[in-house]
Amino acid sequence: MKTVRFLALSLLLLCSGFDVAAQNAKLPVNANATPEAKALLRYLYSIQGKNTLSGQHNYARQFTRSSDSIMRYTGKQPAIWGCDFATRKRQELVNEAIRQYKSGSIITLMYHMNRPLDSDTVRGSTWLKMTDSQWNDLLTPGTAINKLWQDDVDAVAKCLKQLQDANIPVLWRPYHEMNGIWFWWGNKQGENGFRKLWVITYDRMVNFHKLNNLIWVWNTNAPRDWKDDQAYAYDLFYPGSNYVDVLAADVYGSDYKQSHHDQLATLANGKLIALGEVGNVPTPEILKQQPLWTWFMVWADFPWTHNTPQGIRDLYNDPKVLTKDEIKLK
Q: CATH code at 32?
């Protein structure tokens, strides 16, 4: 009898341990996250595997044009409003993000950061390459390139601080598609590769600037072996669960392989996964087969350049897809 009781108690403790571990996995990686950030993350977990939030990116020069197109097609508004800090209209962007949040939108922001050794006047610098020596200097405190990078991060942090002061949580996804070959931060493998850039960025924003309103979205590209356009395996660039709240993938060209979903979910190990950017929208059938996508966000002009109004309507009419009026953060 004692043996039976011991085994029962051991099983109870084991199950309790799993429950605690599962609950801890759902906490923000930033222990000082704001109440609003915690509430948003709780909400995202509450719909995990059950619903998918609709989202729309908007160009900074046209803050609502793309979201407005969804309204014209469907009569519904996307749940998530997205934009990019790669603009000289940063204060206007902050003002619009505040307006969008007050109107009921969830906010996601990204940053196509210029290559740190270039000034803001160099257009297209995001797409230029860095030598191994320049990369090492970037990651080395006190170097000229590191200082330029730091100044750039600090400038964006000031904008994000305004949103924190307004009690606005942000789905923050810097350096997206890092497993691809096209951006200066792309395909940097190894411990001194992209992983380290992510960690020092997290440290600068969270520990130095005390930005506690950010939910950290590590946003890959779906792995692919397209000629001169490759994207490599997710895990080669993952900085670890201590620095990531949500794992996301970008899917273009209707490349919705089941493996893109399943491999990311395996790496996430219980954390949320999302479609950070899409070109051609997923169909309701795809969302049924790949249920863990917590949100999707269509790239800016793609609703009308790569999709049909009927395709957009079919997606937004799927009962699984939640729109702005259906968000329940409280």
A: 3.20.20.80
